């Protein structure tokens, strides 16, 4: 999974320039674009997104946790989902990866506020410091990096793959989404689950609503891509996993569950 041009995780301070775990110039550009997009909106993100990022709690119900599990959210944003998992008793290890330092800064503060984590620990989680045993005591470990470059060892210091990896309204923002799916599958244990919730085609909703929604989402670099759906189906037909789809609110969104073979 690691390649020779991959830098090892280096300490970075949360700030406007995203570069720490990104390998290519284009990756840096995408991360910087995410920082730019969320610099201001991250402050009202959780309040506003609750009304249209539907299905997130339903996806969380499908995440199986126990004291021995390792769960990763790719594109964790403000850590809203990870915090919910951290409130379960015996939730195991929780990890979050995001391209945007800005989002991770908000995530760190939110973890600290909601879970009562000591500020030092919350800061170190955000600052992408090399993984240590101490990090294992944190309820949530956050790292900056790109989905398509996910590497459990390099980014999180894990020698074992994850039990569950999930994307919540993230794949529709990643131009290089095939790489993101491949990296997630590569970092998942056999029998583990890849879960995805994202916008669907709104086919069962009134046409005028669907057209308006698509235009509005494009303003936020969000695109429904039928080919993502096809690629997930393909994971099943090619024998890489067992795939199930579920519709949320008349195909407003879908939840895909892939159990890796
Ligand atoms: C719409 S937000 C969703 C946040 C969160 N998953 C939720 O459900 O509230 C998408 C997140 O994906 C992140 N993101 C976008 N492209 C990414 C990439 N290539 N790698 C990692 N994270 C990415 C963004 O920075 C942002 O925080």
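^ Assign residues to that structure.
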């Amino acid at each position: 999974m690691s390649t020779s041009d991959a830098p090892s995780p280096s300490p970075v301070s949360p700030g406007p320039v995203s570069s720490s775990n990104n390998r290519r110039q284009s990756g840096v550009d995408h991360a910087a674009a995410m920082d730019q997009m969320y610099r201001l909106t991250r402050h009202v993100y959780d309040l506003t997104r609750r009304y249209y990022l539907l299905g997130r709690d339903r996806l969380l119900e499908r995440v199986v946790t126990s004291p021995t599990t390792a769960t990763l959210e790719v594109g964790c944003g403000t850590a809203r989902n990870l915090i919910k998992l951290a409130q379960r008793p015996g939730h195991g290890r929780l990890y979050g990866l995001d391209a945007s330092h800005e989002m991770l800064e908000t995530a760190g503060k939110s973890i600290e506020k909601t879970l009562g984590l000591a500020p030092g620990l919350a800061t170190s989680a955000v600052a992408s410091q090399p993984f240590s045993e101490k990090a294992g005591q944190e309820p949530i470990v956050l790292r900056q990096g790109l989905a398509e470059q996910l590497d459990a060892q390099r980014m999180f210091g894990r020698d074992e793959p994850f039990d569950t990896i999930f994307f919540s309204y993230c794949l529709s923002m990643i131009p290089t989404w095939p790489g993101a799916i491949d990296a997630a599958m590569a970092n998942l244990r056999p029998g583990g689950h890849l879960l995805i919730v994202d916008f669907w085609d709104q086919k069962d909703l009134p046409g005028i609503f669907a057209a308006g929604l698509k235009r509005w989402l494009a303003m936020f670099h969000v695109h429904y891509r039928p080919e993502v759906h096809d690629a997930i189906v393909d994971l099943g037909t090619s024998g890489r996993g067992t795939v199930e789809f579920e519709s949320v609110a008349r195909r407003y969104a879908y939840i895909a569950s892939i159990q890796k073979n």
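Strands lie at 70-74, 93-98, 140-144, 162-168, 188-199, 241-248, 253-260.
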